[in-house]
Design brief:
The complex is a heterodimer of chains A (402) and B (648). With 402 residues, chain A is an alpha+beta fold. Chain A contains 14 helices and ten strands. In chain A, the strands form three sheets. Chain A has a four-stranded antiparallel β-sheet with strand order 1-10-3-8, with no helix packed on it. Chain A has a four-stranded antiparallel β-sheet with strand order 2-9-4-5, with no helix packed on it.
Chain lengths: 402, 648
């Protein structure tokens, strides 16, 4: 067992060294490649050796994809598949089933020798998968990490996994709770704590046989023909849902902050990749500005400044011709999706987002500007007179047809 | 417009598990199937920077790989040779439209032209076909008779290709034109898969092992790249397997008909037929007449058509091997970056290692290899051992079922010797999914995605580079191609690779190779990857001016890309006055090799060099590379064919 640990540690160190040699691109995600391959090697060590194949795939991505978005998405896809595989394995229904060793005496002997260690690995695996996922989602880039809070989140996530029975769904719940916690301000830590409390409650209910995790089909319908607790529903459907729920955020780990705070936008393909002409005019309450929209123009991209407390439907300006009324919901405060400002905001996401994906990892965000469709020609944008003091309506850019 | 291919793919991907998997594994696969569709849907919106078609192909190939994994791992599978053939034909049906994204290439349009001549004119004279190319379904208007094509007494223009394949294509062509012709080949490919699975059964392989090898053979290169293309290779492989099975089972009708068809497909396969015939008739001289017919009929058919029993071939082809020597071909077929098994169909590397355990190979494998020996002995010294303008491994596609058998034997052997070779937490019933196999599977998936998404890249000019090397060279501006072994233009990597191959085979014979723990193997691979990458970024000792890492500002390739047997020339890049190229080279003294009919002048960096005329062949001139930065070489006067630059 100790030799196995040393073996994996050497492999992790060698892989990290190789990654450090290969890194060519300037983003913090690329810079963190050695860290990422170490994490993946650890996941492979506690789950299935095939997960380690993610290491050369990550390194290949660094070499062959010069386009930043494509490269980071490739990293995400590799991690998503690897974590999905690891979660499936942790559920005990992937490749370590006994049928592989049937008819092979040498392997049966080997399995018997290692079964005790193997059982330990299986027990540890969900915990380590969850911690690994959270590390990748929240600890890149390293500079803005608030260590005390992040360690607390890790501990709470580990507790959640333990309490929920180390199932794939438990991993997914713990990872999701961590992902959606801004951690700024401090009181947002109530999110993982709340999930932990709910988990404890659910576990207590389970202990009293009121609710049974994973095997709920059988309990809900005692006459069901599915009598085996390791039924198709529990083993396959739940483990797949758990794997999918972990894989999805991992696919966007390079922009995990944006994924957490602008989930609908990221699920719909991210911010639109549109051609734009920057304008950058801020209008205080009652001010107007004329903008010439060229023939290939399709709209103006507007956002608010210092309007995070305004609620949905609040009028922030108008666009002429056509007297288009611009409200919170069409646009939002420009920086509201930043980690430090997200919690305090009351703005919903713009209906037609026009922002740009900025930053990486947990600090990634999308500026919350919105697109207002207009015809080519002269457009007059007027900030509403009712805007609060210090607030403004910003004309960020003109949207062009691609 | 895009709906039909998507529906087609989804139907195929859904049918694959429904036809084979059962119980929990079916549910598991379907759940994962749905999850992958969900993930792909989300990822799709973020993938604007990539070729959507390639991404779609990648998705389908990965899903087929996932299915293959389930097929190999599931304990309870509905499995038979016929079912394997159905799986294969389903997947090949996806290839038919994929391979038509660009006009068919290589020998394909000529085979189709013969089919069209038979169907429309009831003859083999292609003269009128060449005159009116607008009517050919290949869409190739640039076709002209190939050099050496036979010409009849009355000016008839025949094809150099044997007519059996065009005849076999007739029903499919009449039914659906070019797609019908491709479907005919796909049917042959499915028959090949069926026969190969039967061959595995005949040799006593258990179903689990066969199912593990099946995707590598049926869905992996090279078979998958020939399964929907008009080449004789897949039908030949089918007849070859049937012949081996017939000989092994002592069924004269089977082996006689199979060998006759094999010989009629391509005259070169007579070399394979002869040893099998000898084996078949060795104890039963009653079949000698059949044997003579198998060799004689193709010769008579060709004599009747072209006036020569050997068609475009002559006895010199047998006794006068051209440049390169046997080592180039032998190691090239295994290791070459553009045309070798290691880079183009790595699963069959297992078969190469299995050769050192000859006595443990299945009887059919030994028979097949012995039968192919005369053919291989004549192939490997030839300068065109790599297959010329065709998808990779053309000349040995027919041998793949036998090599798959050897690979299967190797995997079974690996299980017996190394139960914990992969880390101890998984294993295999008959074949542990060892690290090597995982890497091979991963690489194979990449190869298939690339070949199906960009079918025109299956045809690669034999210039010593390969697609990967060219891509990286263009990306980073340094010579990455030199890292890939080339036996077409022999390089250091080829020599190092050959030495490593020999060492690995020796270790394999001593059964040491399988004991590297998985974590170390992957970590080692990562370090090799990093070392190769860093090495590739460094200036090369030799700069070949036609290569992809050289940035050309004007000028032209020498000789022209589609020159017949271009690999026989010293390639180069011709610069005329005012044109330039740039490259990264080692600072210091170097030797520039060039050819020029008249005196010329060039500037390398800041230095100007007068180049005397090199009327007879190539000359060299000493130059100095000033800095490690990118060097610009400009032609100041005249024209010069730049061959290469060798740093001291």
């Amino acid at each position: 067992m100790k030799f196995a640990v040393i073996r994996w540690a050497v492999a992790a160190a060698a892989s990290a060294w190789a990654a450090a040699l290969i890194v060519r691109h300037p983003t913090p995600i690329d810079g963190a490649l050695p860290f990422i391959v170490v994490v993946m090697t650890v996941v492979a060590a506690v789950t299935h050796p095939a997960i380690q194949l993610s290491v050369p795939l990550l390194l290949l991505g660094e070499i062959v994809f010069p386009d930043e978005h494509l490269r980071l998405l490739w990293f995400g896809i590799v991690l998503a598949v690897s974590f999905a595989g690891a979660v499936q394995w942790s559920a005990g229904d992937a490749t370590r089933e006994d049928q592989w060793s049937a008819g092979d005496p040498a392997r049966v002997r080997h399995e018997a020798q290692t079964s005790r260690a193997h059982a330990g690995e299986v027990a540890r695996a969900p915990l380590i998968i969850a911690i690994a996922a959270i590390l990748l989602l929240r600890w890149i880039p390293l500079e803005p990490v608030l260590f005390g809070r992040e360690i607390f989140i890790l501990v709470v996530a580990a507790a959640t996994v333990m309490i929920l029975g180390r199932t794939p769904v438990a991993i997914a719940v713990a990872v999701a709770a961590a992902l959606f916690t801004p951690a700024v301000p401090l009181r947002t830590l109530i999110v993982p704590i709340g999930v932990l409390v709910l988990s404890i409650g659910a576990r207590l209910l389970a202990e009293f046989w009121i609710l049974d995790f994973g095997f709920w089909i059988e309990k809900q319908n005692p006459k069901s023909k599915i009598q085996n607790p390791k039924s198709v529903a529990s083993q396959v459907v739940l483990s797949t849902i758990g794997a999918l729920a972990v894989a999805l955020p991992m696919m966007f780990f390079a922009w995990s902050g944006a994924f957490a705070r602008a989930l609908p936008v990221m699920l719909r393909g991210g911010p639109p990749r549109i051609e734009r002409v920057p304008v950058r005019i801020a209008l205080a309450a009652g001010q107007s500005a004329e903008v010439d929209v060229p023939r290939e123009g399709r709209g103006v991209i507007l956002s608010g400044a210092n309007v995070p407390k305004l609620r949905r439907g609040t009028i922030v300006g108008t666009v002429e011709p056509g007297h288009i009324v611009v409200r919170i919901g069409d646009v939002a405060d420009w920086g509201v999706l930043r980690r430090d400002h997200y919690y305090a905001s009351r703005n919903p996401l713009p209906r037609r987002p026009g922002g740009i994906l900025r930053g990486w990892g947990q600090t990634a965000w999308i500026d919350a500007s919105g697109r207002i469709a207009v015809r080519p020609g002269t457009v007059v944008v007027t900030a509403d007179r009712g805007l609060p003091s210090g607030a403004s309506l910003q004309i960020d850019a003109i949207e062009l047809a691609r | 417009m895009m709906t039909a291919p998507i529906v087609h793919a989804v139907v195929v991907l859904t049918l694959l598990p429904l036809l084979t998997l059962r119980g929990t594994w079916l549910w598991r696969y379907l759940a994962i199937d749905l999850a992958t569709y969900g993930l792909a849907w989300v990822a799709w919106g973020h993938a604007a920077a990539i070729d959507g078609y390639a991404a779609s192909v990648g998705f389908v190939v990965v899903k087929i790989a996932l299915f293959s994994l389930s097929l190999a791992a599931a304990p309870d599978v509905r499995w038979s040779a016929n079912r394997a053939a159905i799986l294969a034909i389903l997947v090949y049906s996806l290839l038919i439209p994929a391979m038509q994204r660009v006009p068919i290439d290589g020998d394909e349009p000529f085979y189709l032209l013969v089919t069209e001549s038979i169907v429309r004119d009831f003859d083999l004279d292609l003269a009128n076909q060449y005159r009116d190319l607008s009517s050919t379904a290949s869409g190739r208007l640039d076709l002209k008779p190939q050099p050496g094509d036979p010409v009849g007494a009355n000016g008839e223009q025949y094809s150099r290709h044997e007519p059996l394949l065009p005849i076999l294509l007739i029903p499919g062509y009449l039914a659906a034109g070019l797609p019908g012709a491709l479907a005919t080949i796909a049917i042959f490919a499915a028959l090949l898969v069926r026969s190969t699975v039967r061959l595995f059964e005949d040799e006593g392989f258990d179903d689990a092992t066969t199912r593990a090898i099946f995707p590598f053979f049926a869905f992996g290169p090279p078979v998958v790249f020939y399964a929907a293309r008009i080449w004789a290779e897949v039908p030949a492989a089918f007849f070859f397997v049937e012949a081996i099975r017939g000989v092994r089972q002592k069924r004269p009708k089977r082996w006689a008909s199979a060998l006759l068809f094999l010989s009629l497909l391509k005259l070169r396969f007579v070399l394979v037929a002869i040893p099998l015939v000898v084996k078949a008739v060795a104890r039963s001289r009653r079949h000698a007449a059949i044997a003579i017919a198998i060799v004689g009929v193709p010769l008579i058919v060709l004599w009747l058509i072209t006036g020569s029993a050997t068609n475009v071939h002559s006895i010199r082809d047998l006794v006068a091997p051209t440049a390169g020597g046997p080592l180039h071909g032998a190691f090239g077929l295994v290791l070459d970056g553009a045309a070798g098994i290691a880079f183009q169909a790595p699963f069959y590397l297992l078969a190469i290692f299995a050769l050192v355990r000859w006595r443990h190979l299945p009887e059919s494998a030994r028979l097949g290899l012995i039968a192919a020996l005369p053919y291989l002995i004549l192939l490997i010294p030839r300068s065109e051992w790599h297959g010329g303008w065709s998808p990779p491994l053309r000349y040995i596609v027919f041998l793949m079922p036998v090599l798959a058998l050897c690979g299967g034997a190797m995997l079974c052997g690996a299980r017996a010797t190394s139960p914990a070779s992969d880390g101890g937490s998984d294993g295999g019933r008959g074949r542990p999914p060892s690290t090597a196999l995982r890497l091979i599977a991963l690489y194979t998936v990449g190869l298939v995605i690339h070949g199906v998404a960009y079918p025109w890249r299956l045809f690669h000019i034999a210039n010593g580079e390969n697609v990967a090397g060219e891509y990286l060279s263009r990306l980073y501006g340094t010579d990455f191609s030199r890292l890939f072994p080339s036996f077409i233009r022999l390089n250091d990597a080829a020599i190092a690779g050959s030495v490593l191959l020999i060492l690995a085979m020796i270790l394999s014979a001593r059964r040491r190779w399988a004991t590297i723990p998985a974590p170390f193997a992957i970590a080692l691979l990562s370090i090799v990857l990093a070392a190769g990458f860093l090495s590739g970024l460094q200036p090369a000792e030799r700069v070949e001016f036609e290569d992809a890492h050289v940035t050309h500002e004007g000028g032209e390739l020498f000789p022209h890309e589609f020159t017949v047997a271009r690999f026989a020339y010293r390639g180069g890049w011709i610069l005329h006055q005012g044109q330039s190229l740039s490259f990264v080279a080692r600072p210091g003294a170097a030797t520039l090799h060039y050819a020029s009919g008249h005196p010329a002048a060039i500037q390398v960096g800041r230095n100007v060099y007068e180049l005397p005329a090199a009327a007879s062949g190539y000359r060299s001139v000493r130059v100095r590379i000033g800095s490690p930065e990118r060097v610009v070489l400009k032609c100041l006067r005249g024209s010069v064919n730049l061959d290469r630059l060798d740093s001291d």
